Amino acid sequence: MNQSEYQTELLSIFNLCALVRRLEIAAVLEQIQHAEAVGPIIDPTLYRMAHPPLHWHKKCAQAALRFQRTINELHESRHTFNIGGKAP
């Protein structure tokens, strides 16, 4: 990987971090947990059909929430990211 490719990839990572910080991942997980709680009661047949993808959605959202929390911790500890390679 050359310097230009490195900077392009790093910029993509920073953009991803900025996007993930703005997502309402906890709210998505709340909706999934609500569906898991009431789905079997309200419509057991539909819940059985929806559960496999819902479980996958929950796992992805949980992973995204962990990533978001890490990004927020970095942001709050005032780590700065510098593409030019110079110390902040």
**How large is the radius of gyration?**
19 Å
Number of helices: 3
Largest sheet: none
Number of strands: 0
Structural class: mainly alpha
Query: What portion of residues belong to β-strands?
Result: under 5%
Name the poorly predicted regions. none
Element string (H = helix, E = strand): HHH
**What is the domain total for the residues?**
1
- Residues in helix, %: over 70%
What is the first-to-last residue Cα distance? 24 Å
Overall mean pLDDT stands at: 88
| Shape category | elongated
Give a brief outline of the structure.
With 88 residues, the protein is mainly α. The chain contains three helices and no strands. It has one domain (3-76).
Task: Please supply descriptive tags for the structure shown above.
88 residues; mainly alpha
Kindly describe this structure.
This protein has 88 residues and is mainly α. It has one domain. It is built from 3 helices and no strands. It has helices spanning 3-22, 25-42, 44-76. The radius of gyration is 19 Å and the shape is elongated. The chain starts with a helix and ends in a 12-residue tail after the last helix. The mean pLDDT is 88.
